[in-house]
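Practice problem: predict the structure.
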Amino acid sequence: MEAPANMDVDDDSSPRGAVDPADRAAFSAAEAVALAYVDEDRTPYGGPMARRELSFEVLETQRLGSDIRVRIGYRPASRFSGRPGEEWILVDSEGAVRTRELISRPKENQPWVLITLATLSVIAAVILIPVIVSRSDPSGDPLYRAGKTLWMRASQPDFVEEVQYGGRTISGDSVNFRIEGPANGWDLAVVHVSLFNQTSQQVSMTIDEDAAVLYDVDGKEFAPINVVERSLRMSGSIDSRYRYPDFIGLWRSITVRTNESVAGMLLFEVPPDFEADRLTWKASDTIQVGFRD
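Answer:
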């Protein structure tokens, strides 16, 4: 594992050298927790990437109220030439990981000679064969849709009474968090969302209560809840009925560069008879996914 870089900043994006010694110590502790956490749990990377030997480094550290968030870069430790993947780790004041948000995956440098040949082949095919461009995903996935600058996939909602997930303290001890339901007979609707920037140089967005709207079949609107504020530390073990071992809450401002993606979960409070009709994404683009198509 690589040593943390000195690119850390406070709330005002000032250099780490500008913060006081107490914050500097807190930043270093949070970085150590974040690096240990991502090195131990690689399941969000998926497939071969999770099984490869990886190299990690701290790209940025910021204070977020009483919490500290750390941006981690990761890449294969050998035979890799390209841009590292990135993710955000949110560490609370007691040194426990609250949320984990995957921003992008490692991207190899492109073999330009092969790309040029492929491009020429595509041009020839376009000249010879008429092509109809669809706004949907070519695979025909009805939950995958395009906006003006972003592609989005949103899953059918999962309905649970609450969400529970695990983290780690500075000393490496396990700590658990819960996001309780509204306690009025309603449930939490969990929607997995993936956003991909395929065309723009960069897209900046703020993921908050105005970022998306979940509609029921009667047209009623439901806004996402703040997964950071609602995450509470648990004293007991995780209930298997509510376990989300790969929980990644979407809730913050983010910039997604070309060919980068961000994935995580939005949570909504919904009544027990709720039937999902569609999800509309509104942050920096407008994309609608229908659940009854």
